[in-house]
Amino acid sequence: MSKLLKNKNFIFFFVIFFTLSSCAKEGFFKTGDARKNPPDPRERVKKNLEEGKGFRLSSAMGGNKSTNFEFASSNGLWRASLDILDFMPLTSANYSGGIIITDWYSEQGNPDESIKITVRFLSNEVRSDAINVDIFYKKCVAVNNCKINKKDGQLKKEITKQILAKAAIYQKQIKDKNFKPYRMSSDD
């Protein structure tokens, strides 16, 4: 019986070890760059807490009773895209699907030409490859005689650039909002 129990313990610890070591390889545990972190442990703790990467025992033990929900408004790319495209009527805005589709838009002086913009989100990170903007142009000769083309031009570049710039501003605001200065207690 004790031999069987020892084998079970060995298998259990082997599985735990294998699982944890595979997590480290897959990126579950993110490694830090030693050049960006101070060598003094107290300074590292201070830096991590100020950036919101740690936790404080007082808040973990119920010091803060409020809940924190993650809504689409906390995603900088999503908010920036809606802000940049606010002049156009939207056909679909699906946060969980990661897509925004505008309706056809034309200026008052030229009703025979209109554009439609589609923004697809490929990542939540603010990077140039995190969004894909497509612009469709519709040119009509008559009411039922329209030609639609997808074009990559200056407007696509400008909209992408504006979305990324505004998303970077939102990301900085969130980071600044989460910044909490670290106060050393008398025990440290």
Please give a structural write-up.
It contains 5 helices and 5 strands, in the order ααααβββββα. It is of the alpha+beta class and 188 residues long. The protein folds into 2 domains: 1-31; 72-175, Alpha-D-Glucose-1,6-Bisphosphate, Chain A, domain 4 (2-Layer Sandwich). It has a 5-stranded antiparallel sheet with strand order 1-2-3-4-5, covered by helices on one side. The longest helix has 25 residues, at 2-26.
**What fold name goes in the CATH topology slot of the largest domain?**
Alpha-D-Glucose-1,6-Bisphosphate, Chain A, domain 4
Spatial strand sequence of the major β-sheet: 1-2-3-4-5
Provide the number of structural domains.
Answer: 2
Portion in beta strands:
15-25%
Provide the CATH top-level class of the largest domain: Alpha Beta
Distance between the termini: 49 Å
CATH architecture of the largest domain: 2-Layer Sandwich
Count of DSSP H/I helices? 5
- Write the element-wise H/E pattern from the N-terminal end onward: HHHHEEEEEH
Helix fraction bin: 40-55%
The Cα radius of gyration reads 26 Å
Query: Which sheet architecture does the biggest sheet show?
Result: 5 strands, antiparallel
